């Protein structure tokens, strides 16, 4: 069982461990941070969203209170009743166990029940089928596939824009 709580400075050391491998790092942040990830970058990230009235960062904690995942909610638009999820990452030992689905499900519940938005969106690279399937299992659907829109080394990656709507 996971719980969501606000992202804290103490969480930085965990995310630094989770994003050590360059490909995983790039799948996670699409080069919005520079590799290798540093404590300073994550401190600046926290400061940015602590001061952004349209964005919040969260840590998923396991039963013992240990961080198991992280995500960001940003671009809250109360007129359009929407929010965008990003920087979704799980602790490597938690991957493949349903924790990602649980964390994203909790985030969707928060967005719909607490923020009262009607739509949540996110982007996922097409070469990250585990994440893509995780989001689909929560109820996200593919909206648009942006072909070959991102370059990683000598590769071209495509990106799915995904969406989930609150129908209640």
Provide an overview of this structure.
The structure is a single chain. With 168 residues, this protein is an alpha+beta fold. It has a single domain, classed as Gcn5-related N-acetyltransferase (GNAT) (Aminopeptidase, 3-Layer(aba) Sandwich). Helix 4 packs across helix 5. It is globular, with a radius of gyration of 15 Å. It is built from five helices and seven strands. The model has no long low-confidence stretch (mean pLDDT 97). The longest helix has 16 residues, at 99-114. 32% of the residues lie in helices and 36% in strands. Strands 1-2-3-4-5-7-6 form a seven-stranded mixed sheet, sandwiched between helices. The chain starts with a strand and ends with a strand.
CATH homology superfamily name:
Gcn5-related N-acetyltransferase (GNAT)
**In the CATH hierarchy, what is the architecture at level 2?**
3-Layer(aba) Sandwich
Strand order of the largest sheet: 1-2-3-4-5-7-6
Unreliable segments (pLDDT under 50, ≥5 consecutive)? Answer: none
The shape is globular
Radius of gyration: 15 Å
Q: In percent, how helical is the residue content? A: 25-40%
Most strands sheet = 7 strands, mixed
* CATH uppermost class: Alpha Beta
Strand content is 35-45%
- By DSSP (H or I, 4+ residues per run), the number of helices equals 5
Secondary structure tally: strands: 7
Instruction: Tell me the span between the first and last alpha carbons.
Output: 25 Å
The average pLDDT is: 97
Series of H and E elements: EHHHEEEHEHEE
What name does CATH use for the topology?
Answer: Aminopeptidase
**Overall SS class:** alpha+beta
Number of domain modules: 1
